[in-house]
What we know:
This protein is about 55% helix and about 0% strand. The chain is built from 3 helices and no strands. The longest helix has 21 residues, at about 10-30. The termini are far apart. The model has no long low-confidence stretch (mean pLDDT about 85).
Amino acid sequence: MGFNKFFVKNWQFTLVIFIALMVLGVNALLNMPRGEDPPFGAPIFSIVVVYPGTNPADMEKLIADPIEEELYQLSDVKK
């Protein structure tokens, strides 16, 4: 019996194999890692300063601006 005759004669077997391959293909497509969104951990740090009783202008002038100037002097910090 030839290769083609086997699959034509046993069409139920051919249908089950075809459906199984389709299910495996859809499963692989859905579970495949995405190359455009690679997982990586970005180094992010928050600086919190509490100065009770001050207004926003004084907080910026006395605290935020000096801290930002010191941070910008670091070679690895861009913004």
